[in-house]
């Protein structure tokens, strides 16, 4: 009922949106004499504000066209390398670049926003890595015939993607996927899988939310499983491809974290209105870019959302050694060939200090040479994976760690490689898998340092 009411409201205000859009376009026509007057600019600003407040924001684009490698420009071709019902593995292929470089799988959070929230993260790795990212599909666009999507399915997807990419792949999990990334790595280690990641980088992940719990952690743990199941899960109505799917709606997520900082959002829109009147195009465009990303939300599969609440925030199954996959108890202590790096922000109020570092205690089978913990001073949650400090300080640390452990996986015999008969064949396939092709002079990711604490909240839940 709630989803249907929201959908009906969205359709009802579309005429207002279209009217405001037409009004703004008329006011900005070159031959309109009001265009250069204070009155005209005020009317144009009001029209755009109404247009934006009544819009339905769709999935943004990554927008990469080129990148620069050693002073040379290479075109970026965004391709679906491997497609599954709830996620596409995107490859940012650099056309014409033939130098083999480390493969990086960036695991974007399935937490309300699209993978484009990590645009800045992807951009930093394009010049010197073969970059792939998990592009999660809006659950309302997945037909019911494809079934549901649970925590176990999430882990299965990561394992399938790692098999698709082959050996010597480095996995970077940003926030929420840190837990399933550890589970996937543990499953592959237990099976002696040669495609297990060479290194695992966890950024601001809620590994053990009992450590320095934040307001977000308290909210998630302050209610029981039944409350979430009975109050925030909806059924996608007719009119969508995924009609009948059980989901945690994006509009509930959006309204929740906007209400946490409503005063800030209101003041930003007043400032935007003033910038339009003054003709401050740079600030106005920064506002548009940020809110185009911030207001574009996706529905989450109900099973996955509820599993995450239960396993991560209510029962703390991973740090307690109780987490399972497909009914089998997970053994993180068996991980011995995957190097581990954890990253935390000094001022992170979404994932508290120590929550990500807890992974080192859980992955107890690694040597000291295979471990690294890095704390970035002066940044919050968002600054761990985006913005100036990420570009200048965090990203170089990650790249150095990847380079150090690029071939750190201990060689294993052909008989230990599932489904393989020749070690020579494996080596050839691994080399061929490194598709040398490209790079981008990418569009600068939205750097709203004022990135409303609420944006980060979505990464945690």
UniProtKB/TrEMBL annotation:
InterPro entries: AB_hydrolase_fold (IPR029058), PHA/PHB_synthase (IPR051321), PHB_depo_C (IPR009656), PHB_depoly_PhaZ (IPR010915)
Pfam family, one: PHB_depo_C
Residue ranges annotated for the PHB de-polymerase C-terminal domain, each copy included: 204-405
Record's protein name: Polyhydroxyalkanoate depolymerase
Organism: Oceanospirillum sediminis
């Amino acid at each position: 009922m709630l989803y249907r009411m929201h959908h009906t409201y969205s359709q009802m205000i579309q005429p207002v949106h279209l009217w405001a859009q037409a009004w703004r376009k008329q006011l900005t026509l070159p031959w309109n004499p009001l265009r250069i007057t204070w009155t005209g600019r005020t009317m144009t600003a009001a029209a755009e504000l109404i247009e934006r407040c009544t819009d339905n924001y769709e999935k943004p684009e990554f927008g990469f066209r080129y990148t620069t490698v050693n002073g040379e420009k290479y075109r970026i071709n965004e391709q679906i390398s491997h497609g599954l019902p709830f996620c596409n593995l995107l490859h940012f292929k650099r056309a014409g670049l033939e130098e083999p470089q480390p493969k990086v799988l960036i695991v974007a959070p399935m937490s309300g926003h699209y993978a484009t929230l990590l645009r800045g993260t992807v951009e930093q790795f394009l010049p010197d890595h073969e970059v792939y990212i998990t592009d999660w599909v809006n659950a309302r666009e997945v037909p019911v015939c494809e079934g549901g999507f649970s925590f176990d399915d999430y882990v299965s997807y990561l394992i399938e993607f790692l098999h698709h990419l082959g050996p010597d792949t480095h996995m970077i999990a940003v926030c929420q996927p840190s837990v399933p990334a550890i589970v996937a790595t543990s499953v592959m280690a237990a099976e002696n899988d040669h495609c297990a990641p060479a290194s695992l980088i966890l950024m601001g992940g809620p590994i053990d939310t009992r450590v320095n719990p934040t307001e977000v952690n308290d909210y998630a743990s302050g209610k029981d499983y039944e409350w979430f199941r009975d109050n925030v899960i909806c059924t996608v109505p007719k009119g969508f491809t995924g009609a009948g799917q059980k989901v945690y709606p994006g509009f509930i997520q959006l309204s929740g974290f906007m209400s946490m900082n409503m005063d800030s959002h209101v003041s930003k829109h007043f400032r935007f209105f003033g910038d339009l009147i003054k003709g401050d195009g740079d600030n106005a465009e920064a506002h548009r870019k940020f809110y185009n990303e911030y207001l574009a939300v996706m529905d989450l599969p109900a099973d996955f959302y509820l599993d995450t609440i239960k396993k991560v925030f209510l029962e703390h199954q991973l740090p307690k050694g109780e987490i399972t996959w497909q009914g089998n108890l997970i053994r993180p202590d068996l991980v011995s060939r995957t190097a581990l790096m954890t990253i935390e922000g000094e001022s992170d109020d979404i994932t508290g200090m120590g929550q990500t570092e807890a992974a080192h205690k859980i992955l107890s089978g690694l040597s000291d040479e295979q471990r690294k913990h890095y704390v970035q001073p002066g940044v919050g949650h968002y600054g761990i994976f985006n913005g100036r400090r990420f570009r200048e300080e965090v990203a170089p640390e990650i790249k150095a760690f990847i380079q150090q452990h690029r071939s750190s996986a201990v060689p294993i015999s052909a008989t230990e490689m599932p489904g393989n008969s020749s070690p020579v064949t494996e080596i050839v396939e691994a080399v061929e898998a490194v598709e040398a092709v490209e790079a981008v002079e990418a569009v600068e990711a939205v750097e709203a340092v004022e990135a409303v604490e609420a944006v980060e909240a979505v990464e945690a839940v």
